[in-house]
Fold:
Amino acid sequence: MTDRKSELETLRADLTARLSRYEAHQHREGGALDKDFEEQAAQTQNDEVVDSLETETRAELAQIEHALARIDNGMGDQCESCGEAIDPRRLQVLPYTTVCVDCAED
Ligand SMILES: [Zn+2]
Structure:
């Protein structure tokens, strides 16, 4: 299980780095006033894309934190929903999952 944990920690570091890039993008210094309408429209569209990426990344991060917490509690390979063991092959493909394949399909 140590492998899965370090994999999750790597993933968490990646996502955290990505998140701070999104945040830097959203909080960049103005300049919008100098731009013509078309450019502003493109900018707004771009902001929306980054916005949804940020939301997605936050959700992924939360899931990873959640999986890590369960690993720390010794329940990392146990389904959160039904309590059965999660197939190790499933954990290999989806290291951040906290439910077994049966519960995931529901
Ligand atoms: Zn289950």
